[in-house]
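Usage

Read records sequentially. Each one opens with the input sequence:
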Amino acid sequence: MRTSVGNFALLFLTLTWSPGNAYANHYEVWRGTTPYFDPGAPGCNCTLLGTTTDLSWPDSDAAGVDLIGDVSTNYFYAVRAVNAAGASAAGPRAGEFDFALQPGSPQA
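and closes with the structure output:
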């Protein structure tokens, strides 16, 4: 399963992925604050954002989290395919990174 983050606007981004399992009946979308979090594990510093049958998830500031422009926190995303047998391992993580711009000095 390939995962990516894109379509940035003010405080909004869209997570997209390719189907990794033809037998998935829905997907779990997770957001964490550490790069290689284990979705659902105790102490994972992660949140289940929801489930969907689509191959994309819009993540916005709805929960009071400033996703875009917060240089103090980076967010990482993982998606798991789910079917009657349970959830798959999370696919590759995708991340959202913000960096503070430092003023420079003009070159003489």
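Summary fields computed downstream for this record:
- The chain is about 0% helix and 40% strand.
- The beta strands are 3-9, 12-17, 26-32, 46-52, 56-59, 75-83, 86-87, 94-96.
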